Amino acid sequence: MIIDLGLTDYEECYRTQREMAARRKLGEIEDTLILAEHNNVFTVGRMGARKNLLVDSDYLHERGIKVLNVDRGGDITFHGPGQLLIYPIIELKEKWRDLHKYMRLLEDVAIKYLERYSLQPGRMPGLTGVWVSGKKVVSIGIGVTNWVTYHGLSVNIKPDLGFFDMIYPCGLRGVKMASLESLTGKDISMEEAKIDILSDFEKVFNYGKIYFSSPAYIGGMTRKGEI
Question: What is the pLDDT along the chain (227 residues), one digit of tens a residue?
């Protein structure tokens, strides 16, 4: 099943994730992908620290930008319009309870997607995410409850990259962020990005056809076999 929330506040999307994760554990729904863009927000993960936020709270308050502590892995990051969030709600079967492997599969999805644009994406030793020419394009932070996943990956399609200058992204000093737009010079629509990345998710995670339309609860996701 796919849920496309469109542009939505982070808190609303988080509530939807937790609701869907609980329903997945009870067997009420199949594996589900939640797609979203968020209004401008900084989130700080379980391993994060607000010292990696480089502007004061008054500055953000005046601009209506929140800083939220969240229960995903990782440190601080930015979410905003033009960034595609993919939140998989997946039950990890007993033979597949390897969170490191799961995160590598999420990276594989992003790598396949970026390769569509003749880029050379890859990993950085010891770090999570996907990079192109030394710049980070995709961030990943996950949560797991009762072996059902939530949170996920953020893909910079065409966000305002200036917001990343207000933080040490992922708690890493000297990291430069990039977007698909900044790397290719192309104006890529969010709808096009969703369709393509869903296709790549389908291939990497060995699902049957994922049907997409917006906005909707649509289609079904049935894994063809254990990964």
Answer: 899 999 999 999 999 999 999 999 999 999 999 999 999 999 999 989 889 999 998 999 999 999 999 999 999 999 999 999 999 999 998 767 899 999 999 999 999 999 999 999 999 999 999 999 999 999 999 999 999 999 999 999 999 999 999 999 999 999 999 999 999 999 999 999 999 999 999 999 987 655 443 444 434 444 444 43
Catalytic residue among 2, 36, 170, 193: 170
Domain ranges of the chain: 2-218
Look up 13 and say whether it is catalytic. Answer: no
Q: Per the CATH hierarchy, to which homologous superfamily does domain 2-218 belong?
A: Bira Bifunctional Protein; Domain 2 (3.30.930.10)
Distances 227 to 3, 76, 78, 195 between C-alpha atoms, Å: 23, 31, 31, 23
**67 within 8 A of 125, measured Cβ to Cβ:** no
